[in-house]
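Aim 2 progress update. The chain analyzed this quarter is reproduced below.
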Amino acid sequence: MTPSAAATQDRAAPDALERLVVETQPGMNKVNALILDRASSHVELVPEIARYLIDAGGKRLRPMLTIASAMLFGGGTGSEVNFAAAVEFMHNATLLHDDVVDESAMRRGRAAARMRWGNQASVLVGDFLLGQAFTMMVETGNLEALGVISRAATIIAEGEVLQLAKARDLSATRADYSNVIHAKTAMLFEAATEVGAMAGGADPAGRQALKSFGTELGFAFQLVDDVLDYRGEAGRLGKNVGDDLREGKMTLPVILALEDANPAERDIIVRALGQPETGEAELATVRAIFAKYDTLGRTSLEARRHAEAARAALSPLHAGPMRAHLADIADFTVARAY
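Predicted structure tokens:
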């Protein structure tokens, strides 16, 4: 892709999400109603915490992708609503669990649930959401789709453990990073689009196309998130800038900087990495090192490569408005970094 073509796509990309919201609204209305219904419980603290996170916002991109994938192949038979709600519950469960593991203070622009109700309640409500996700999958009677979601849940958990094991590991490689983000992020995107295609009646080739699209989109999404952790603003991120550094996460910007930095610069990064008390001055110094070696730009370029691969995955499918909307979402994902 030429620089001018990329710039044109980036300018158009912010509208892509709004177009997808409009196109999937009828299905998403049903999904949102199901989410609110299944977040209820006779134990008062459960819906209180669940609704706190669910009502905090978020784009609900993953369930939208499930609905859109079903629409791409004819609209589905109704099972896509359960699939989409299950995907969103899985996502919110991982957020609750992640905040405990990472000791995060903010989520979606306000105090993380653990800061209000504690770690134990947050973990247990996350477990409740996972249970509800699998219940909604079982209700469709589609064991093959249940297998896709179950496998995703297992791999996501493995990815979180791998990321924890690699925290502040200065020997972590680009391959290690790729394994982590495939498991912890791309896997749920992949599952969301694959089960959507299944609900829409896709043939094996169509199902594979949407699965590949979801995988590549998930990679692009996480790469951009890792850029925004250093380049973004707390208000837009919904969390504190530099949290990945303070948590010791070996993201691609860090790995690239450690590869290229001189000994003094490397020591600065290492001293800030994994230190919760790392302040604005230390963060600014690390960001200056990143700028020197263009690690954020190089990470953004890698995100663009995955976005282009996501678009290419859709190319064998019949051209139409929904295919175009999904392709545009790949551009939207990358445009968030600029």
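The first strand starts at residue 106 and ends at 107. Residues 1-9 have pLDDT under 50 and may be disordered. These observations will guide the mutagenesis experiments scheduled for the next reporting period.
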